[in-house]
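Sequence in, structure out.
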Amino acid sequence: MPEAILALDLASRTGWAVGEPGQTPTHGSILFAKPGASHEAIFSNAWGWMYSKLADFGPSTVVWEAPMPTSFSRGRSNVNTTTLLYGLPAVIGACAYRCGLYDIRKADTRDVRLHFIGCNPKRDRAKSMVMRQCRAMDWEVEDDNEADALATWHYMCSLIRPQLALVTTPLFAKA
């Protein structure tokens, strides 16, 4: 896949989607370690998983939703969550870079949602709307992590191939 994009929703359960713009992406979600595992175990497994995805799919671009600034969730987060949400992008980006992939991008959650569902509602409502939009596009998703990765993938496809920007429903896809 010479133009394949690998999009990630990095979290304790990470969603992923990979494919060429205009094609049907392969997607899923993965838990890098059992609940309660150390950050080191999670990061090590994330590196290994990323290495295998790069080998399997050979993407030309990797993108993930950038984590929110720590001030955004002040009082509702903790150091363990912050370490995970900032550590995973560092590990994934380092692995991609080490493997020779230099087109590594971050996407703003607001921009992804505006592109994919046409608005930027609060988290819980956005998650269900993104899942609904994925299903409207005939992408069966198991969880919101996978759906968010697909939304990020579609957003990045529209930036790389702007003619795909309006293809967010089967009606437009057939036109």
